Amino acid sequence: MCNKFNKIVTNEDTNRCNRQTIKMDRRRVADFLRGVFMFYKKIAAVVMSVVIAGSVPCTVFADTDVSAVTDGEVEELSIEEDFSDGTDSISALANVLADKTVSDVAEYQEAKAEAEEIAQKRLEAEAAAEAARKAEEERKAAEEAARKAEEARVAKRQEIADFALQFVGNPYVYGGTSLTNGADCSGFVMSVFSQFGYELPRVAAAQCAASQKKSVEDIEVGDLVFYGDGGIDHVALYIGDGKIVHASTAATGIKVSDYNYRAPAAVGTFVE
Protein backbone atom coordinates (compact mmCIF):
# COMPACT_ATOMS: atom_id res chain seq x y z
CA MET A 1 0.00 0.00 0.00
CA CYS A 2 2.69 2.39 1.00
CA ASN A 3 4.81 1.40 -1.96
CA LYS A 4 1.88 1.82 -4.29
CA PHE A 5 1.08 5.17 -2.81
CA ASN A 6 4.66 6.20 -3.06
CA LYS A 7 4.71 5.15 -6.68
CA ILE A 8 1.65 7.26 -7.47
CA VAL A 9 3.18 10.26 -5.77
CA THR A 10 6.37 9.72 -7.65
CA ASN A 11 4.56 9.63 -10.99
CA GLU A 12 2.64 12.83 -10.25
CA ASP A 13 5.83 14.56 -9.16
CA THR A 14 7.50 13.35 -12.29
CA ASN A 15 4.68 14.68 -14.50
CA ARG A 16 4.67 17.98 -12.68
CA CYS A 17 8.39 18.25 -13.03
CA ASN A 18 8.16 17.47 -16.72
CA ARG A 19 5.53 20.17 -17.26
CA GLN A 20 7.63 22.69 -15.38
CA THR A 21 10.64 21.72 -17.44
CA ILE A 22 8.68 22.18 -20.66
CA LYS A 23 7.48 25.61 -19.55
CA MET A 24 11.00 26.60 -18.59
CA ASP A 25 12.25 25.37 -21.95
CA ARG A 26 9.54 27.33 -23.73
CA ARG A 27 10.51 30.48 -21.83
CA ARG A 28 14.19 29.96 -22.55
CA VAL A 29 13.50 29.49 -26.25
CA ALA A 30 11.17 32.50 -26.36
CA ASP A 31 13.77 34.61 -24.54
CA PHE A 32 16.44 33.37 -26.88
CA LEU A 33 14.39 34.15 -29.99
CA ARG A 34 13.50 37.60 -28.68
CA GLY A 35 17.18 38.22 -28.18
CA VAL A 36 17.82 37.07 -31.75
CA PHE A 37 15.00 39.32 -32.96
CA MET A 38 16.47 42.36 -31.23
CA PHE A 39 19.91 41.50 -32.60
CA TYR A 40 18.57 41.28 -36.15
CA LYS A 41 16.68 44.52 -35.60
CA LYS A 42 19.89 46.36 -34.66
CA ILE A 43 21.77 44.82 -37.57
CA ALA A 44 18.98 45.80 -39.98
CA ALA A 45 18.95 49.35 -38.64
CA VAL A 46 22.69 49.72 -39.18
CA VAL A 47 22.57 48.18 -42.65
CA MET A 48 19.62 50.22 -43.84
CA SER A 49 21.04 53.48 -42.47
CA VAL A 50 24.20 52.81 -44.49
CA VAL A 51 22.18 51.89 -47.60
CA ILE A 52 20.23 55.13 -47.62
CA ALA A 53 23.38 57.13 -46.76
CA GLY A 54 21.99 58.88 -43.77
CA SER A 55 19.00 60.37 -45.58
CA VAL A 56 16.65 58.55 -43.21
CA PRO A 57 17.20 59.15 -39.47
CA CYS A 58 18.15 56.10 -37.43
CA THR A 59 15.10 56.74 -35.30
CA VAL A 60 13.03 55.48 -38.21
CA PHE A 61 14.40 52.03 -37.54
CA ALA A 62 14.71 52.43 -33.82
CA ASP A 63 11.00 53.10 -33.77
CA THR A 64 10.20 49.98 -35.76
CA ASP A 65 7.28 48.39 -33.99
CA VAL A 66 8.71 45.36 -32.27
CA SER A 67 5.23 44.33 -31.33
CA ALA A 68 4.81 43.34 -34.97
CA VAL A 69 6.27 40.06 -33.78
CA THR A 70 4.64 39.44 -30.40
CA ASP A 71 5.57 37.00 -27.69
CA GLY A 72 2.78 34.81 -28.94
CA GLU A 73 4.21 34.89 -32.45
CA VAL A 74 7.65 34.16 -31.05
CA GLU A 75 6.31 31.18 -29.12
CA GLU A 76 4.27 30.12 -32.14
CA LEU A 77 7.37 30.17 -34.29
CA SER A 78 9.49 28.55 -31.63
CA ILE A 79 7.23 26.15 -29.80
CA GLU A 80 4.83 24.84 -32.37
CA GLU A 81 7.76 24.01 -34.62
CA ASP A 82 10.41 21.43 -33.96
CA PHE A 83 12.91 23.02 -31.55
CA SER A 84 15.50 20.41 -32.23
CA ASP A 85 16.73 22.83 -34.91
CA GLY A 86 16.14 26.56 -34.22
CA THR A 87 17.40 27.64 -37.62
CA ASP A 88 13.94 27.77 -39.23
CA SER A 89 12.49 29.89 -36.45
CA ILE A 90 15.39 32.30 -36.50
CA SER A 91 15.19 32.59 -40.26
CA ALA A 92 11.46 33.23 -40.06
CA LEU A 93 12.00 36.03 -37.55
CA ALA A 94 14.78 37.50 -39.66
CA ASN A 95 12.55 37.41 -42.73
CA VAL A 96 9.70 39.11 -40.85
CA LEU A 97 12.08 41.80 -39.61
CA ALA A 98 13.68 42.29 -43.01
CA ASP A 99 10.31 42.52 -44.77
CA LYS A 100 8.98 45.01 -42.25
CA THR A 101 12.17 47.11 -42.35
CA VAL A 102 12.17 47.27 -46.15
CA SER A 103 8.45 48.09 -46.13
CA ASP A 104 8.97 50.86 -43.56
CA VAL A 105 11.85 52.34 -45.55
CA ALA A 106 9.87 52.21 -48.80
CA GLU A 107 6.88 53.87 -47.17
CA TYR A 108 9.11 56.51 -45.61
CA GLN A 109 10.89 57.25 -48.87
CA GLU A 110 7.57 57.45 -50.73
CA ALA A 111 6.12 59.81 -48.12
CA LYS A 112 9.34 61.84 -48.12
CA ALA A 113 9.29 62.16 -51.92
CA GLU A 114 5.65 63.20 -51.86
CA ALA A 115 6.31 65.76 -49.12
CA GLU A 116 9.29 67.17 -51.04
CA GLU A 117 7.18 67.45 -54.20
CA ILE A 118 4.43 69.28 -52.30
CA ALA A 119 7.00 71.56 -50.67
CA GLN A 120 8.61 72.30 -54.04
CA LYS A 121 5.25 73.13 -55.61
CA ARG A 122 4.44 75.36 -52.67
CA LEU A 123 7.75 77.18 -53.04
CA GLU A 124 7.17 77.62 -56.76
CA ALA A 125 3.66 78.93 -56.13
CA GLU A 126 4.94 81.34 -53.49
CA ALA A 127 7.72 82.52 -55.82
CA ALA A 128 5.23 83.05 -58.64
CA ALA A 129 2.89 84.95 -56.34
CA GLU A 130 5.76 87.11 -55.08
CA ALA A 131 6.90 87.82 -58.64
CA ALA A 132 3.35 88.76 -59.63
CA ARG A 133 3.05 91.00 -56.58
CA LYS A 134 6.31 92.77 -57.39
CA ALA A 135 5.33 93.13 -61.04
CA GLU A 136 2.03 94.67 -60.00
CA GLU A 137 3.79 97.04 -57.62
CA GLU A 138 6.22 98.06 -60.36
CA ARG A 139 3.36 98.59 -62.80
CA LYS A 140 1.48 100.76 -60.32
CA ALA A 141 4.65 102.67 -59.49
CA ALA A 142 5.31 103.29 -63.19
CA GLU A 143 1.74 104.43 -63.74
CA GLU A 144 1.98 106.74 -60.74
CA ALA A 145 5.28 108.17 -61.95
CA ALA A 146 3.83 108.72 -65.43
CA ARG A 147 0.74 110.36 -63.96
CA LYS A 148 2.82 112.71 -61.82
CA ALA A 149 5.09 113.53 -64.76
CA GLU A 150 2.08 114.36 -66.93
CA GLU A 151 0.57 116.46 -64.19
CA ALA A 152 3.85 118.34 -63.81
CA ARG A 153 4.11 118.85 -67.58
CA VAL A 154 0.57 120.21 -67.88
CA ALA A 155 1.02 122.35 -64.77
CA LYS A 156 4.18 123.90 -66.18
CA ARG A 157 2.46 124.81 -69.44
CA GLN A 158 -0.44 126.31 -67.54
CA GLU A 159 1.96 128.29 -65.38
CA ILE A 160 3.54 129.85 -68.48
CA ALA A 161 0.12 130.82 -69.85
CA ASP A 162 -1.04 132.25 -66.53
CA PHE A 163 2.15 134.26 -66.22
CA ALA A 164 1.71 135.76 -69.71
CA LEU A 165 -1.93 136.70 -69.10
CA GLN A 166 -1.05 139.11 -66.31
CA PHE A 167 0.47 141.46 -68.90
CA VAL A 168 -2.68 141.82 -70.97
CA GLY A 169 -3.34 145.52 -71.53
CA ASN A 170 0.33 146.51 -71.55
CA PRO A 171 1.58 148.41 -74.62
CA TYR A 172 2.90 147.08 -77.88
CA VAL A 173 6.32 148.52 -78.75
CA TYR A 174 8.05 147.52 -81.94
CA GLY A 175 11.46 146.04 -81.10
CA GLY A 176 10.60 146.07 -77.39
CA THR A 177 11.08 143.19 -74.96
CA SER A 178 9.66 144.67 -71.74
CA LEU A 179 6.62 142.94 -70.40
CA THR A 180 5.54 146.07 -68.57
CA ASN A 181 6.82 148.97 -70.66
CA GLY A 182 6.12 147.41 -74.04
CA ALA A 183 7.18 144.62 -76.37
CA ASP A 184 6.49 143.39 -79.87
CA CYS A 185 5.11 139.90 -80.56
CA SER A 186 8.40 137.98 -80.55
CA GLY A 187 9.84 140.14 -77.73
CA PHE A 188 6.77 139.38 -75.61
CA VAL A 189 7.03 135.61 -76.17
CA MET A 190 10.79 135.59 -75.64
CA SER A 191 10.51 137.52 -72.35
CA VAL A 192 7.71 135.31 -71.02
CA PHE A 193 9.65 132.10 -71.68
CA SER A 194 12.85 133.50 -70.25
CA GLN A 195 11.13 133.62 -66.85
CA PHE A 196 10.99 129.81 -66.98
CA GLY A 197 14.54 129.18 -68.10
CA TYR A 198 13.98 129.01 -71.87
CA GLU A 199 16.17 130.95 -74.28
CA LEU A 200 14.21 131.69 -77.45
CA PRO A 201 15.53 133.43 -80.57
CA ARG A 202 14.68 137.12 -80.86
CA VAL A 203 12.45 137.19 -83.97
CA ALA A 204 9.31 135.20 -84.84
CA ALA A 205 10.74 133.45 -87.93
CA ALA A 206 13.75 132.21 -85.95
CA GLN A 207 11.48 131.11 -83.08
CA CYS A 208 9.39 129.09 -85.54
CA ALA A 209 12.48 127.47 -87.04
CA ALA A 210 13.88 126.53 -83.61
CA SER A 211 10.62 125.14 -82.18
CA GLN A 212 9.44 121.54 -82.27
CA LYS A 213 6.61 121.42 -84.79
CA LYS A 214 3.24 119.81 -84.15
CA SER A 215 -0.15 119.76 -85.83
CA VAL A 216 -2.89 122.24 -85.03
CA GLU A 217 -5.03 119.29 -83.86
CA ASP A 218 -2.43 118.52 -81.15
CA ILE A 219 -2.05 122.09 -79.91
CA GLU A 220 -1.73 122.50 -76.11
CA VAL A 221 -1.54 125.30 -73.60
CA GLY A 222 1.97 126.77 -73.78
CA ASP A 223 2.48 126.13 -77.51
CA LEU A 224 3.34 128.91 -79.93
CA VAL A 225 1.17 129.75 -82.93
CA PHE A 226 2.96 131.29 -85.91
CA TYR A 227 1.36 133.40 -88.64
CA GLY A 228 2.42 134.66 -92.04
CA ASP A 229 1.55 134.46 -95.70
CA GLY A 230 4.89 134.53 -97.48
CA GLY A 231 6.91 133.95 -94.31
CA ILE A 232 6.49 134.04 -90.53
CA ASP A 233 5.75 137.57 -89.37
CA HIS A 234 3.84 137.08 -86.13
CA VAL A 235 3.82 134.78 -83.07
CA ALA A 236 1.37 134.25 -80.20
CA LEU A 237 1.11 132.06 -77.08
CA TYR A 238 -1.72 129.52 -76.98
CA ILE A 239 -3.61 129.65 -73.64
CA GLY A 240 -6.30 126.99 -74.26
CA ASP A 241 -9.95 126.97 -75.30
CA GLY A 242 -9.03 128.21 -78.78
CA LYS A 243 -7.45 131.42 -77.43
CA ILE A 244 -4.05 133.10 -77.71
CA VAL A 245 -2.33 135.96 -75.89
CA HIS A 246 -0.05 138.16 -77.98
CA ALA A 247 1.39 141.60 -78.47
CA SER A 248 -0.89 142.48 -81.35
CA THR A 249 -0.48 146.04 -82.60
CA ALA A 250 0.35 149.48 -81.29
CA ALA A 251 -3.35 150.20 -81.22
CA THR A 252 -4.40 147.17 -79.18
CA GLY A 253 -1.25 146.28 -77.23
CA ILE A 254 -1.04 142.91 -75.49
CA LYS A 255 -4.40 141.16 -75.72
CA VAL A 256 -6.29 137.87 -75.98
CA SER A 257 -7.65 136.72 -79.36
CA ASP A 258 -9.02 133.61 -81.04
CA TYR A 259 -6.12 131.49 -82.25
CA ASN A 260 -7.61 131.40 -85.74
CA TYR A 261 -8.22 135.14 -86.05
CA ARG A 262 -5.70 134.59 -88.85
CA ALA A 263 -4.90 131.30 -90.51
CA PRO A 264 -2.09 129.69 -88.48
CA ALA A 265 0.99 128.96 -90.59
CA ALA A 266 2.55 126.62 -88.03
CA VAL A 267 2.41 125.42 -84.43
CA GLY A 268 5.58 124.81 -82.45
CA THR A 269 6.65 124.26 -78.86
CA PHE A 270 9.65 124.63 -76.57
CA VAL A 271 7.97 122.87 -73.65
CA GLU A 272 7.76 119.14 -73.19
Descriptive report:
The chain is of the alpha+beta class. It folds into 2 domains: 2-123, no CATH class; 166-269, endopeptidase fold (from Nostoc punctiforme), CATH 3.90.1720.10. It is built from 6 helices and 8 strands; from the N terminus they run ααααββααββββββ. A 6-stranded antiparallel sheet has the order 3-8-4-5-6-7. A two-stranded antiparallel sheet has the order 1-2. A hairpin with a 2-residue loop joins strand 5 and strand 6. The longest helix is centred in the middle third of the chain and has 79 residues, at 87-165. It is rod-shaped, with a radius of gyration of 53 Å.
Overall 3D geometry? rod-shaped
Distance between the termini: 140 Å
Instruction: Give the low-confidence spans.
Output: 1-9, 50-69, 71-86
Number of strands: 8
Structural class per helix/strand content?
Answer: alpha+beta
Major beta sheet, strand line-up: 3-8-4-5-6-7
**Alpha-carbon Rg, integer:** 53 Å
Q: What is the H/E order?
A: HHHHEEHHEEEEEE
Helix content: 55-70%
Number of domains: 2
- Count of helix runs: 6
Main sheet summary: 6 strands, antiparallel
Fraction in beta strands: 5-15%
| Average pLDDT level | 80
